[in-house]
Description:
Elements: H1 16-19, E1 52-56, E2 86-88, E3 99-101, E4 109-110, E5 116-120, H2 135-144, H3 156-160, E6 180-184, E7 187-191, H4 199-202, E8 231-237, E9 242-247, E10 265-269, H5 274-283, E11 291-292, H6 300-307, H7 310-313, E12 316-319, E13 323-329, H8 339-348, H9 351-357, E14 364-366, H10 393-402, E15 409-416, H11 425-436, E16 440-447, H12 449-456, E17 465-471, H13 478-485, H14 505-515, H15 520-535, E18 540-546, E19 548-551
Parallel strand pairs: 1-10, 1-11, 15-16
Antiparallel strand pairs: 2-3, 4-5, 5-7, 6-7, 8-9, 9-10, 12-19, 13-17, 13-18, 14-18
Amino acid sequence: MRQSSVISRRVAAAAVSLVLATGAAACAGPEDTGAEGGTSGKAAGAPRKGGTLTVLNAEAQTDFDPARLYTSGGGNVPSLVFRTLTTRNREAGAAGTEVVPDLATDIGRPNKDATEWTYTLKDGLKFEDGTPITSADVKYGIERSFAAELSGGAPYLRDWLIGGDTYEGPYKDKKGLASIVTPDAKTIVFKLRKPEGEFPFVATQTQFTPVPKAKDNGAAYEEHPVSSGPYKVVRNENDGERLVLERNEHWSPGTDEERKAYPDRIDVRSGLDEAVINQRLATSSGVDASAVTTDTNLGPAELAQVGSDKALAARVGTGHFGFTNYLAFNPKVKPFDNPKVRQAISYAINRTSVVNAAGGSALAEPATTFLPEQKSFGFTPYDHFPAGRTGDPEKARQLLEEAGFPDGLKITLLHSTAQNRATSPEIATAVQEALGKAGITVELDGQQPNSFNEKRWSVKDAPGFFLSRWGADWPAGGPFLAPIFDGRQIVANGSNYNHAQLNDPAVNKEIDEINKLTDLKAAAARWGALDKKIGEQALDVPLFHPVYKRLVGKNVKNVVISDWTGVLDISQVSVK
């Protein structure tokens, strides 16, 4: 399976962390007062153990099996039950983009060319029944994620592990995957078919959760998965619509520096209307005073209401997740094969009107780079087609004339009909109006979400001009640039994310060279330079990076949000 297939479920997936980063289902929570933009965390008093944390969500926490979940950094609710070899640093802001050890003693020890990674488990690790966690349990947990009946998780290992592309899981292949070696109960070694310096990021995903083979009952495992984290599942109704977690008495905080696990109980209630969720959090009566949400943002109208209430505003925080909304070109379709036409559109865009259509400056930040504005991604500032905040229609007209269109041109823009303020009619209309001032007549083609995605992800049927968006599986340049610009990831018969169908040997080579680096800071600098270089070709027009606003109940304390997920981290929250 190609790495480009990794985000095939990004918009619709039930997987916690990544789903939360998109549109109406975006997950970003209030930041701690120690981070930029803070909220009520410290002002409300020191965190204490005890009580019940209620989670009010629109979407159910489905497929609660570590093999089937598609998460980054271990996820949010899943991370309370499932520990992984590595995890995200549970700190606010940029510090939260770092990989840190979880079950393992370190983030991994690579060989010279990063084709082999070795991990050692900590002492004293136990499952919820008190039995020791071994390297064989981690190996088995990963292997079962290859089973067809447990599909849904991140498929990186299918592409990265030797033999991963043909392995069908332990139910069909009892011998197991030879490229995962467990020489003893504490050691696990991964043998890769190519250098992967960002392997520690992948080791944060829930597929790296240990699963005791004797307790595996296949597809039914999600009903009561065996916990390795601070909480265990005591109730799972209607495939995650109601999920109740209570303390795992065999979890040792001495082995877990990341999860605070203050509440005694976590009660996740889903299937709620988003407006109702925000109203309940705002009112904060009864159990809602100790409630949060992991999938519901405040909208423009709600933010206006919050702005006039200081007490309410104190319970709202800001989250950032590595995500870019952009205009995509397919240069295989005329007139977008002409670089000057693409440049003209780049100059004509009015980012102020686009930001306003996305909900205003509180919910969107203008973008001129493809990479998000975070150091972990390798963000390198550039604006190859500077048009100010409102566009430069005169420069656009000049380029159109040079391109052979002195009287302007007519084009069609594909967009979604979903009201997500990302690929929706509001954004499309803002683009249409801006290009109209430059002599470019834009006809809007609104499609239902499924049809829209099928077209923009198709090599055969992709139009020349459409709205798109991209979010990374972890906070680094690799999963952001490679699926979009690596020519070897063009998928002819499936979901293709390389919209421009760029297959530049120099770009492909640089991606390979960066993947060899295990120094993540050095790799970030190279990703930033590559982004800037690709940007010169005007293969896309970055529009904005989303910003997330989130309410919490009045009794919620120690609210922390990192730049890894843009998510309120449940493992840090206190409700007393």
